């Protein structure tokens, strides 16, 4: 099954989630705050993270941004707050799903299974090269002819999603659901805007991202 990192400053919540997860055959490691979660991710690999937002020492958003610099691990965020801003910000930095407290442990596990299944089919080499375009998914960096380029977290997420599905036609709706999440309130113009920014960053390799008129996009590369 899965190896899960549960991060929450409330011991009772950690224990409830751990009990349900272990009952389903998963392995669970617990952390009390964001700093402990970062240190654990440096030492161990996890299939998925369940992380609270409001924690002492380091909040969940900040902790996850640091973890993403090291490893590409999907995350389900927990929060006592249900403000739209929190959800939008979370999806902007790359979280996979969001649950508001109080929650049903069964719902958390159901969402967790979907997240892991969605990501398990995308396991590919973390370092890829397309002529002079080098993409390091694990390290979250992109180089054009040996020069590293800077992009926003969501631009990285979008490019990596396209590359993981190389030569596959992806609709704008698919892209929004997978990269921004099902709870995103924007429209498909968001995808178009981010594609434009990525193409500008890729320079002469911009044509690897092909527009499928009236449908969506694909990353096209033939050996």
From TrEMBL:
Natural source organism: Sporanaerobacter acetigenes DSM 13106
GO CC annotations on file: cytosol; protein-DNA complex
Residues annotated as domain Response regulatory: 3-116
GO BP of this protein: regulation of DNA-templated transcription
Keyword Magnesium tagged: no
Gene Ontology terms for molecular function: phosphorelay response regulator activity; transcription cis-regulatory region binding
Modification sites for 4-aspartylphosphate: 52
Top-level taxon of origin: Bacteria
Listed PANTHER family: REGULATOR OF RPOS, TWO-COMPONENT RESPONSE REGULATOR ORR33
Keyword terms: DNA-binding, Phosphoprotein, Transcription, Transcription regulation, Two-component regulatory system
PROSITE patterns: OMPR_PHOB, RESPONSE_REGULATORY
Record domain OmpR/PhoB-type: where: 125-221
Record-linked InterPro entries: CheY-like_superfamily, OmpR/PhoB-type_DNA-bd, Sig_transdc_resp-reg_receiver, WalR-like, WH-like_DNA-bd_sf
Protein name, per record: DNA-binding response regulator, OmpR family, contains REC and winged-helix (WHTH) domain
DNA-binding region boundaries: 125-221
């Amino acid at each position: 099954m899965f190896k899960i990192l549960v991060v929450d400053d409330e011991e009772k919540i950690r224990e409830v989630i751990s009990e349900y997860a272990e009952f389903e055959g998963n392995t669970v490691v617990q952390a009390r705050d964001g700093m402990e979660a970062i240190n654990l991710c440096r030492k161990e690999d996890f299939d998925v993270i369940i992380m609270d937002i409001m924690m002492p020492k380091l909040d969940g958003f900040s902790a996850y941004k640091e973890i993403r610099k090291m490893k590409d691990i999907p995350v389900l965020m927990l929060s006592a707050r249900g403000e739209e801003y929190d959800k939008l910000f979370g999806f902007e930095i790359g979280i996979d799903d969001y649950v508001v407290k109080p929650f049903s442990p069964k719902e958390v596990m159901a969402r967790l299974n979907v997240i892991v299944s969605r990501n398990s089919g995308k396991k590919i080499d973390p370092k890829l090269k397309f002529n002079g375009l080098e993409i390091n998914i694990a390290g979250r960096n992109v180089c054009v002819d040996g020069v590293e380029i800077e992009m926003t977290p969501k631009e990285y997420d979008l490019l990596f999603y396209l590359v993981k599905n190389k030569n596959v036609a992806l609709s704008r709706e698919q892209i929004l659901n997978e990269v921004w999440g099902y709870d995103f309130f924007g429209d498909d113009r968001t995808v178009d805007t981010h594609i434009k920014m990525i193409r500008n960053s890729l320079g002469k390799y911009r044509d690897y991202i092909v527009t499928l008129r009236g449908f969506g996009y694909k990353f096209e590369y033939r050996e």
